[in-house]
Amino acid sequence: MTSVLQAQELGKKYGKRWALRECTVDIPAGHVVGLVGPNGAGKTTLLKLAAGQLEPTAGAITVLGGRPAGGPAQLAKVGFVAQDTPVYAGLTVAEHLRLGTRLNPRWDAGLARERIARLGLPSGHRAGKLSGGQRAQLALTLGLAKRPELLILDEPVASLDPLARREFLQGLMEATVEHEFSVVLSSHLVADLERVCDFLIVLVDSRVQVAGEVDRLLSTHHRLTGPRRDPARLPAGQQVISARHTDRQSTYVIRTDAPIHDPAWTVTRLDLEDLVLAYMDRYVADDRRPVLEVRR
Questions:
Q1: What residue stretches are annotated with the ABC transporter domain (predicted)?
Q2: 160 and 75, same structural domain?
């Protein structure tokens, strides 16, 4: 299957601090990919490397088979909506669309006009006078009208209220169905990923902890609850992701492809929130758990 993004031992260092390190991941085409992790995990760094806004310190990355930002043709294939849905406060909605026409060789003016009209965005209003949700929709429109093969969105709805978030994500999903492009969406809001993503990457401590299709990940991860047991006594094919113990009871989250037949265990399936938090439980920095929001 064709890959939209491949990274091999990718790393980015700022001074003495690694913002991303040893990142190896292969994202197949045709997916809406959720990139999730705590603040400071390296999500924005990875996306900026993919967009060609940063150069790697170590390793290699290709996007749509080429070097990120490696010329006009490569730039035209990738849309990028950065944090805080950046738009030009002093430009009107209509001026944003005219700017898009000048800057993007594959610009779909009809799509942009139709979407702006359907959303009811006033074309004569300056972006600085729009609501947060309206600015987010304008930024998404600019990204979609570029007609990219890959659209990268870095925390695009984190600052929006629940209604604006839902409308933004609904518009994104409608566009992916209609125009058939790939998406990488960064978020620390697990509920957003549950709504729209079918491929998941969990990034913690600047490293990829797990990546794969959501259905596959959920079918191979289980919660085991039963009498207290040392992890060394678990079958070899059961990878322990997280563990909690009381005096009498053990609770494990494990990854396995094999059926679980041990009658001592109560086996329950995980939802996406459980899965993400299990991988985050493996990492504690400075005696603090990483920040992740799971609000609905």
A1: 5-230
A2: yes
